[in-house]
Amino acid sequence: MVAPARRAVLIALGLMALTIVAALAGRGRTPAPEVADLFPGGILRMGIETSPSPYIHLWDGEPAGLVIGLGQALAGELGLTPLFVNVSLDGRFDALRLGIVDLLIVVDARQTAMEADVLATRPWFNAGLALVSHEDLPFRSMQDMAGRSLALALGSAADAEARRWQRRIAAFTVLPYELPQHALDALRFRVAHAALVDALDARLYLRQQEMTLVMHQVSDQHLAMALLSDPPTRWRVVDRALGKLFEQGTVARLLDRWL
Amino acid sequence: MMQERLKVIARQGPIALRLLVVLPFLHVLHPVEPRATLQEPQQVVTSLPQLCVHTRLIDEVLEWKIQRSLQLVREMGAGTIVEFFPWAYFETSPGKHNWHQADRILRHARNQGLQVIARMGMVPAWARESTGQESPTTLNTLPPEAWDDFADFVASFAARYQKEVKHLIIWNEPNLAFEWGHATVSPQEYVELLSLTHDAVRAASPDTVLLAAGPAPTLEPVGSPQGMNDLVWLEESFAAGAADWIDGLALHSYGFTEGPEAPSAHDRLNFRRTELQRDVVQRHSDGKLAFFLTETGWNDDPHHDLAVSPARRIRYTLDALRFSSRQWPWLDSLCLWALRYPAPSTNWRDGFTLITPEFLKKPVYHAVRNLASGQESGDALWLPPPVAPS
Q1: In CATH, what class is B49-372?
Q2: ipTM of the modeled complex
Q3: Would B51 disulfide with which of A195, B78, B144, B269, CB 3.0-4.6 Å?
């Protein structure tokens, strides 16, 4: 299964343009000798899928978004020129093995455990489920929900999680809506005591609302980068660079900008 | 004092001895997995004879999970499954077969009264390396030197399971570079592979129905390294004589963000692209080929551009089943991708399943089952959007 080609072509063209801009911006910077050996040509080839949003947006026809920003920042930290390469979900680990890309930017860290020759970096975002509630009546965990009402999107991961909770704690009322935004509206209008949505939806909603809502993550989905385990130095260099982006506040700034 | 101690030792000694005897057997006290004994043979009862579902049982370790999955297929009202039987799993060295996992799956499918369409593919290491070259390969790399070996494997499978498996799909989405070992895709090469496989299977099991693999629905432009437009692929493969070597087609078409009745067009991907694919085939054949839609459905991942909400997925899936029953009498089976994965994919692919790996039935499963059993309640499954207090 492949995404419609027109969009992929637009994104590919945009990514090429970005590469040229990044190359011009990066002129004069040279990677450390160790990095230069690991990434011949001074290029960091990063595999991305064109579809998932909001990690990658088409912004005025140009690819932008959290993943693009993160890739650019990483390449900058390493003194390399970023090159984004479209890879399919099915073929992305093969793309690593065949040397088509140096790393994958967005991988659920649990997935690398199933690939013997792939390692995940430290995670850069936790996209797990979040329990959202009012600041004046906060709920932080499953146990808090007994006897309360919980809004969620029907059939979503939150729906499945709530059914797990129903087996473990005293009864609570589930209010299923068509969309996570409706579940969050139900919370905002105090139709529900809390809403269970994923961290992305929670962050995007909370930034739009003036009301004081708070979120507590109740499950983990750690997103990380992935590289081949051999050579291990390449993984170390990239993981260390990502660590520096955290220390410098770059990752937090990117998350705040896009989510 | 010493005497007291000796008395204690004398009292406790037999207990210690007994413990020593018991200790070696403690390891058997781990929880026992449920048994998967065969029950009375079952039959599928359904009002949707086209309903079929793609399963992913081949990687399931525990037999009771295979059995449970197939029970849920039957209870949903699907009479057919599509399952992948990878060559790499069954022939790990040339000529030596281990059919254990296929035996388990097919035994339980038969017990549940299910038809099985088997998809063949995935190349064992020894066959990938048959060129003698050291360039990296993938599990989909099938060098021409190994085509005869692949055909022999398919023939062995067909002969062994001629009672359990009537339909075989040769390969998967061969119009994608990924599925063709990241090599340049070639309809002509694929047709050559079909002809070799056809001859081997006909000799081993004359009644087996051979289906050409469904090309992935894609609008890839000419010369794309990712693959070839599915309609162009069908044109070229039938121009190369595909119809001579097959009995039918396994088509793939997903709904993406459009409803099932949205009209098809050459520059759009949606459910009814199936009609365009069939048109190409009909033009190039005598009209006797059978059609199976072996992969279709909607994804409900919350953050994928080509997905819909779970609620909309339910509506589209039910509408697609109704539409197909009404408008596509030529379609043998409509197979939803996918029933359940053995483990979470932890990516947007999980948005295609009907049941979670831990056997939680998603609302879409219940909705399909209710439609197939004629028990649709008509009640809304979700609440209307909340309204701001006045």
Answers
A1: alpha beta
A2: 0.79
A3: B78
